[in-house]
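Question: I have long wanted to understand how a fold can be written as tokens. Here is the record:
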Amino acid sequence: MHKSAVGHAIGKLLQVLGLVLLVPLAVGIYDYRHLSFADTLVLSEILGFILAAFASAVLGTVLVILLKHGKELQGIKEGYAIVAIGWVTLAFFSCLPLTFYLMSQGGPNLGNLASSFTDAFFEIMSGYTTTGATILTDIESVPRSLLLLRALTHWLGGMGIITLAIVIFPSMGVSAYQMFRGEVPGPSKDKLRPRLAQTVSVLWGVYVLFTAAETVLLWFGGMDVFESICHAFATMATGGFSTENQSVAAYGSDYIEWIITIFMYLAGVNFVLHFRALRGDLQGMTQNSEFKFYNAVIISTIIIATAVLYLDGLAPREAAADSWRHEQMTHEEFTVHYEEQSQEIESLYGSFRVAAFQTLAIVTTTGFATADFDLWPDFLRFGLVFLMFFGGCAGSTGGGMKMIRIMLVLKVAWTSLRKMTQPRLVAPVKIGGQVIDDNRVVNVVAFFILFTGLFIVTGLLMTLFVPDLTTAVSCSIATIGNIGPGLAGIGAVENYAWIPLPGKWLLVFSMLLGRLEIFTVLIVFRPSVWQK
């Protein structure tokens, strides 16, 4: 491992971050334009932005200059290290403005510093990993500059801030492709152009196009420009951060819900397929096995959820009331809430609308909410948790295992079952008519085992920090799958603010593992990786 190569690349990432942080800083200065310049500079979040942007730019430039010889030393090991360490470094500097803001809400003491930094790092890592789990209890009172920062971390993390750096710095080094593989979700990374920088530019171009289109459509639907941008960033990144305490439900607009539903669906599709479709190659989608499986999962889930909600309604009132919440509602509050949720699904259309939105929000790991699905029958609650493992397609911005891996594991299981009854059977594993080589099968099966194992271990450890088993289990899959909301204590109308500090750090690690697809992070912990 050439540490100078890692330091040089991270320096370039910090330079990019320094520029990015100027955007929310400008919004903050504009919002406080009624104050004097001196008064604006001493505001906690403004001071935090200035410090974060300055420190990122200066440290990044120093690393690039001092370690410029490291650029030629990058290899496979360096590529993995740059991705894993780079994401943690970017989250550290990005969380400074929010840390300053949260500290200003409490007293100047060591305990407040520790809790503020933990909460800020949790929030920003949740943003970059597009998890959407939040510790903010009153989002609407947070300054717009910080809300935009949250949205930006989503948007950059969705396609990958390292891929953005590859666009800005085409000569990132020979490990650039390894960084691309380590950061872009999914087991396959198709190259559309001979040069990696050209491929990444194409993907970012499609990403920007869809984001701009959704922003305009949401603006037409009644959101202001700022809200439209933040929700478009969160949707296309499959993140889920909203500017409202009640998420998308706060707008009470069918139009807005359907626009977000459509773009959540698009965000869960491989962006290579989008690019080819925009160029007129629709066969790429119609003949793609993973895309077909993605649609089959979504359509069947929507149909089942619609039927169950319309015919059976919510879970029995007594059973729903027993679901554990950190902040229990009074009997009167719960009765009103339960009736409001029941009215939403009284009609067939209402059930279909709610089922479609929440299915897409969970399958694509976006995590937006228009309904309190913790009130749904246990059959649907279990089904939603099951879907959290799936995620979007490879090459999308969605989290989870990815549809292609689920397909491959099912194919391997079926083939093994057939060989037990037909020992002489020669049946290679195929997807889309193509034989999958043994190395790729082993890699996917290993990922499946690791993902499941980490889910179990994280859920087990979370029982040490939360008093409810359902909450502990859903915390695990909601973070490693990069979904955000789960069940019970972290349900659609709850948040993560109440979880103890050690539990939050465990979930931060879980989010990072999920977003960088486990191997990229775990490889860095191998001592042999750091040997030259």
Notes: The first strand starts at residue 430 and ends at 431.
